Automatic annotation (TrEMBL):
GO terms for molecular function: antiporter activity; xenobiotic transmembrane transporter activity. It comes from Diplocloster agilis. It is found in: Cell membrane. One of its GO terms (cellular component) is plasma membrane. Pfam families: MatE. This is Multidrug export protein MepA. Belongs to the multi antimicrobial extrusion (MATE) (TC 2.A.66.1) family. MepA subfamily.
Amino acid sequence: MDYEEETEEQKQYTRMTQTPIHKLITTLAVPTIISMMVTAIYNMADTFFVSQLGTSAAGAVGIVFSLMALIQAVGFMLGIGSGSLISRLLGQKRKEEADQVGSTGFFMALVFGLAVTALGLIFLKPLMKLLGSTPTILPYASDYARYILLGAPVMGGSFVLNNVLRSEGKATLSMVGISLGGILNIILDPIFIFGMGLGISGAAIATVLSQCVSFCILLACFLTKKSTVRLHIRNISRKGATYLDIVTTGFASFCRQGLASIATAVLNVQAAAYGDPAVAAMSIVGRIFMLVLAAMIGFGQGFQPVAGFNYGAKNYRRVKEAFFFSLKTGILLMTILAVAGWFTAPSLMALFRKEDAQVIAIGTFAVRAQCLVLPLFPLGVISNMTFQVIGKSLWATLLSAARQGIFFLPLILLLPPLIGLYGVQLTQPLADLLTFAACFFFLVPFFRELNAQVEEQERTA
């Protein structure tokens, strides 16, 4: 390591451990919020443009979203698993081990993506039926999914590159890569779908091309040494413990995203009993709240490296301060968005399918029900990210499994037979309410432990 590089690393360490918490988290959160919002917006753009092709086409986007959520599940597991370990290792000034973790996570993601591409293309139509496709939706879903599967290796690799940059505290570089790809997707959607007459396949091609652009930009940050962590094939770990640590640390993210995929598939199956308008409406509602929740998750990803760095450096008071600052800010943000969502719900639904009054009615009720519990969402996000980044993997996994697994799946199976379509619309809000309550079972012992560490440090000082 040369002197210039060592000095730069020391500057970054000082920044992460001494900058005032509110300033540091806000600085890191703004780029991550922009990245998450752009990603959610281009997903909404896909839904918007595809919806113009008909109600069945709109439903297909919801079906393939389950597949994308599964790819994201493994991508997030490897990306956040690597990133959480890297932030702690850099906080402990263990740079070479951070290089190993980053390289191992990146190449694992590429191999996984190739496996998904091969298996997904072989079993394409059975897979679409398994994810909840009706006979009328199946042709659209198959055309859309075919191209998404081809982009799986690039998507997986991008998640790791993105999270490694964030873990270093270099969220702006991450934002540039993700945002430029997302903007390109929005531009290409109408050109490919309508201008070139490719229909729903055009939306998928636009998504894959934009993912490739994002991947190249993010990879360039590492090739040009703008990142602290160095990725190289020779840095891939030969120790099984490294792979286990990445998977264990990121498993909470896998549960969160993987269960999101399963939950969406089961939701589609339950909604299909009420026709294509119900599937389309719940698909659109899902995309709307993906945009809303992206803002909170983006803010949480600005908080996460701060918590990890300072926990690794044993600055426990800063970890506590970061938690409560992020929680209060998140509640304020979600409350504002909940009020806005309640009053604009019919207009939001009409943006996508103004020709279908049934879609608008079903979606409006679901949007408003979700808005009622939206201010509770930040506690789950910040708690989960805290446990994940400090190494409490079991707690993080249980909490991440709660929202769309432990609570959602039983509710989506039980409620529709009891109260019909209302059961489909109310399952997610009720699951969010129960997840909020569950957080306190983990937070009480955590803060008891953290406060004891703070008091011990103050006595020693």
